[in-house]
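We keep the chain:
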Amino acid sequence: MIRVKRWSAVCLILLVSAALLSSCASPHPKRIVIGSKNFTESLMLGELLAQQIEANTHLKVERRFYLAGTYICQQALLAGRIDIYPEYTGTALTAILKQKVGGDKVEVYRRVKSEYEAWLGLTLGPPFGFNDTFAMEIRGDDARRLGVKTLSQAAAFAPQWRAGFGYEFMERPDGYAGLAAAYGLHFAAPPRVMDLGLLAPALKGRQIDIAAGNATDGLIPALDLFVLEDDRHYFPPYEAVAVVRQQTEQQHPEVAQAIAELGGKISDVEMQQLNYALDGQHRDVKDVAHEFLLSKGLVH
């Protein structure tokens, strides 16, 4: 019965999405609108996509960044308000498609791409090259003092810890509730819900003791934070990809080609360095993006 209800809910979402798509043909045929979520890495990827398309096509690019979280970006895409935004395969699988976690990164990418194309009128570009899984972070000095390396080991200390998580992590199916159940995590108080940009500083400043960040967060080494190993493999792969409206790709195949050239170009370490350039060095995102694309021979 639960499965029937869940499938009915997914079908309803898909039907609404299809209606949105059918009502917004060619909303901006002479320009490409790129969105992003409201955190550093999504902004960085959005700017990389924007400059890559500007450099390799004759289309104008409009930037609509900081569009809150996953659900807002997804609805903006379906409604035709944006054409492209950076997403993660594990997030698409669990938060959008409402499917259970399972499969390696190749299988998860295939499943998401197939479902998006079949039901949502969307498609995926190739993976950028890095996996930005959730990172359960504690202070480096705590990790060394307690000898804690894994989430299983951390469960013994959790009753003395204060946790801080982003709103979306508290709500999504691959987020806090499932993680707590998988590892038997019980904290000293209910987790504090915080803006993503405040989590690492709050952890370093001892306002909280554990946070759900991202594996490619540039502040992890800068603030001497330690990422606990997900030794029970709770989190799915989160390969970063561009989600693109199929209508946009059909009207502008040159856009798909420009995006494809970014495939496999960003390693985990490189993404962490790009994030640090913004969060740690406070550099302008346009300058950082241009330098990176130049180093890869993608712009001149």
Observations:
- The mean pLDDT is 91.
- Strands lie at 31-35, 60-64, 84-88, 122-124, 134-139, 163-165, 192-193, 210-214, 225-227, 240-245.
